[in-house]
Amino acid sequence: MAKAKYKEYYNFMIQNNIELFEKFQEIHDQYVEQPEKWETEFNSVGSQIVEIARDWETKLCRASEGGQYGKYANQLADKFWGEIRKTLPKIDFVGTKLG
After folding, report:
1. Which of 5, 26, 64, 71 has the most CB atoms around its CB within 10 Å?
2. How far apart, in whole angstroms, are the C-alpha atoms of residue 47 and residue 19?
3. Looking at the predicted structure, is the pLDDT value of residue 71 above 70?
4. Structure pTM?
5. In the predicted model, what is the mean pLDDT of the chain?
6. What does the alpha-carbon distance between residue 42 and residue 95 come to, in Å, rounded to a whole number?
7. CB-based burial of residue 31 (10 Å sphere; 0-12 exposed, 13-18 middle, 19+ buried)?
8. What are phi and psi for residue 2, nearest 5 degrees?
9. CB atoms inside a 10 Å sphere around CB 79
10. Read out DSSP for 22-35?
11. Is the pLDDT at 17 greater than 80, yes or no?
12. Neighbour-count burial of 28, counting CB atoms closer than 10 A to its CB (0-12 exposed, 13-18 middle, 19+ buried)
């Protein structure tokens, strides 16, 4: 069975940026435990992660927009971000200021 396209792009994204994603995973996990302490580093490294993810989301959607599945590009983007949120559930908090 073929792997879903959004999962392939997710895996490519991680493989091409493994060190940064591993670093952010550690910061992310610390942020979950102590958000106030880790907020600055979480937002700094997280903004790089979000930028990379948006770039890969664009690549993914561009690859499908030209084909017969163009109308499903938004759903594809949602699935892609859902895959990211499986390991980084606080990704949507990047850029958020606490207190």
Report:
1. 64
2. 15
3. no
4. 0.89
5. 91
6. 8
7. buried
8. -75, 145
9. 16
10. HHHHHHHHHHHH-H
11. yes
12. buried
